[in-house]
Amino acid sequence: LSFLPQEIVSGESEEESNGVNLMEFSDEILLHILSYVPCTDLVLNVRRTCRKLATLCLDKSLTHTVLLQKDYKVNKDKVKQLMRDIGKEIYQLNMAGCYWLPSSTIDHVTRCKNLVKLNLSGCHVTSLRLSKMLSTLQHLRSLAIDVNPGFDASQLSSECKATLSRVSELKQTLYTPSYGVVPCCTSLEKLLLYFEILDRSREGFMLSGQLMVGESNVPHYQNLRVFYARLAPGYVNQEVVRLYLAVLSDRTPENLHAFLISAPGSFAETGATKNLLDSMARNVCLDALQLPKTWINGSGLLQHLKFNNPFYFSFSRCTLSGGHLIQRVINGGKDLKSLTSLNLSGCVHCLAPESLFRKAEDDIDSSILESLVVSCCNLRHLNLSAAHHHSSESIGNHLCQLLSRLKHLLSLALPVCSITDVAANVEKPPTASNLVPQTFGRKVRIGIQTYPRNLADQANQKIESSVFWALMGNLRFLETLEIIGSSFSSAMPRNEPAIRNSLPPCVRAQSVGDSEVAAISQLTYLQSLTLAQLPNILTGSGLVSIGLQCQHLRTLSLANLGMMGKVVYMSALMDMLKHCKCLRDLRLEQPYFCAGAQFFQALSHCSSLQRLCIVSRSGTLQSDAVMSFMANCLEVIMCHMFMGESLTVCKNLQQSIVRSFQADRPALNVVIFPLLHEDLTEVIRDVPMRHLDEITLFKSRVAEEPPNLWW
Predict the structure, then answer these.
(1) Summary mean pLDDT of the chain
(2) What CA–CA distance (Å, rounded) separates 295 from 238?
(3) pLDDT value at position 671?
(4) How far is CA 394 from the centre of its chain?
């Protein structure tokens, strides 16, 4: 049991003068320590070491809530034994994303007679198994499930429907057109819907958004307080969500306080949705709002909606101007201290007074941002990515200087061009990177790069007076940071072939490089970092500083850094990885990336690594190096590599990894496939949603959803 000190495991005392016997600590301290140990290990292993731990491991504070959602070592037998030992003591059970467990595992949940909250998203559950399980869970009030092809609501027993009638919170992920169990949930207060229905079947047939025969039951929304719908790309998802919304348009729940619809692309407004919005404007007072961009653009809707104490707004991809934002959303700059999360991703005009005659690259109006900062002083999550937010040369009005006032920020997403120092950008002569065409190809060559090997040398090169350096110094408690080029697009979109060409970076972003990356190392508590399309990366020296200083870093995503024809930061990246002991997720997207022996040897220092994703046009890999890495890093359960290798090489390596490691790693998910192959989308559809949504697909995740939307 390497996760516990030997003193706890054995119960023996240290005889050395400087030794500490943890078994002499109070029960409260030991319970706190044990709370960091996976429940399966506590119940099945730790409690068998001594009498004291046998008692503590079964304390209600440790068994009340059981989280299995990222316990990748758990298997069917462990779940079975766990339910036998403490099933009656479990009130909240989270098995979300346990895709590797067979569907029969769900049968053991019936032992948890006192369950109040149950999350089975991503688990294999048939209609009959769901019916049998829910029939025994009479105290259940919160449920999360997937609805897969073949789901049949007519197979649900009367006892199951009785349980569902008492459920007040439902999260439902749809992979087929269906109401699922929504019509049975007559007491719903919170409804979360995730639409993941594909437009075509595996056989290539077009799918219809019409519900299956026998699914004409009407959902019950009269008690609804929260309605959330997130749509994957595709017209079928739009057709099905309209069926769910049709009932809302007839009678809007008077207690509705959060209405959120996240839809990519164009989602046309219909007569029914217009009636729904008009009814909401008349009858409800909202605390959280997100609507498709086409429902907001050009309409006066925001002027009529009423807000109480809003905590979340998302106007992602809307053409909302800064003038409208100030006047209609934050009431002319009035106090909005309740707002904790704001998503303005892709709102290209949100920091300008009007959008009619403005170009997307024009300077922002700092007074609008200042009003926003002053009014929403308690913001914890702010997303300003996917837009050109260029500051003027006015002293003290730079975007970074204004954002420095938001002392409570925990997550922040910014476009690369917004962090450049205006004066430095004007005066700075072109560097070698600026002169290199930002295109693919092997023709461009530069000399061997060197970079400072210690922080003292780094300090001599950094621009401590820059506005971005000051911003990072003022946001010391930031946990998530995304710096993404305003024109960046990943080579792996959701349901389309891989993108072969990318747009050039913004001109203002040309000076952003190593010194700005080094500034990030001030964030001592940083847990998640995304850097994409930073054109002036010459050596990647700032990455080494981050590896040394940001010891809590758990998620790292790097994409298109420096010039595109060569991975100029490889040496620095390898040095960085040697210090990332807590890193769990790594995503790399870079043309011509060489995943060879040296890279995987450096990566092997990341002892906590669980998931790896590499996306590289014309990239290469060494199969023996990958196998050696997988053998050395025992925690790795996901390996996704989309490179330039042949289909034969990819298939052989994938089969070798699965054959060698699947038995000891039940959750192992391996996808190695040519990036530009025509069947890539078919391969992607088989990736578990947990990995696809959290790491494989690139996207901005700051303020993507309201905080604490689900547990």
Answers:
(1) 88
(2) 14
(3) 98
(4) 36
**Sorting pLDDT into bands at 50, 70 and 90, what band is 21?**
confident
User: 440: pLDDT confidence band, cut at 50, 70 and 90?
Assistant: very low
How does pLDDT run across 136-154, given as a tens digit for each residue?
Answer: 999 999 999 999 999 999 9
322 and 353 in contact (C-beta within 8 Å)? yes
Residues β-bridged to residue 536: 513
Question: Amino acid identity of 545?
Answer: S
The tokens of 304 are what? 């009529």
Q: What is the DSSP string of 308-332?
A: EEEEEEE-TT----HHHIIIIISTT
Three-state secondary structure call for residue 261: strand
What b/e readout covers 428-449, taking b as 16+ CB neighbours within 10 angstroms? Answer: eeeeebbebebebeeeeeeeeb
Instruction: Round to the nearest angstrom and report the end-to-end CA distance of the chain.
Output: 28
Extract the tokens encoding 201.
């079947």
Task: Tell me which residue of 618, 619, 553 sits closest to 586, measured CA to CA.
Answer: 553
Mean pLDDT for the stretch of residues 321-326:
88
pLDDT score at 214: 46
CB burial string 371-395: b at 16+ within 10 A, e below: bbbebbeebbbbbbbbbbbbbeeee
CA–chain centroid gap for 344, Å, is: 17
Dist. CA 377–CA 218, nearest whole Å: 42
Between 500 and 271, residue with greater pLDDT = 271
Of residues 590, 615, 579, the one with CA closest to residue 537: 590
Number of other CB atoms surrounding residue 3 within 10 Å:
11
pLDDT at 588 over 90: yes
CB burial of residue 58 (10 Å; 0-12, 13-18, 19+): middle
CA distance 178 to 697: 26
**What's the CA gap between 460 and 286, in Å, rounded?**
51
pLDDT band of residue 334 (cuts 50, 70, 90) is low
- Determine contact, residues 652/627, Cβ cutoff 8 Å: no
Cα Rg of the chain, angstroms: 26
Q: Where are the beta strands (DSSP E) in 638-688?
A: 638-643, 669-674
3-state class of 559 per DSSP?
Answer: strand
Least confident of 257-261, 329-333, 651-655: 329-333
Q: What is the pLDDT of residue 581?
A: 96
- The C-alpha atoms of residue 460 and residue 44 are separated, in whole angstroms, by 53
Domains within the chain, CATH numbers bracketed: 30-188 (3.80.10), 218-304 (no CATH), 602-710 (no CATH)
Q: Is pLDDT of 448 > 70?
A: no
Question: Cβ of 474: how many Cβ atoms within 10 Å?
Answer: 17
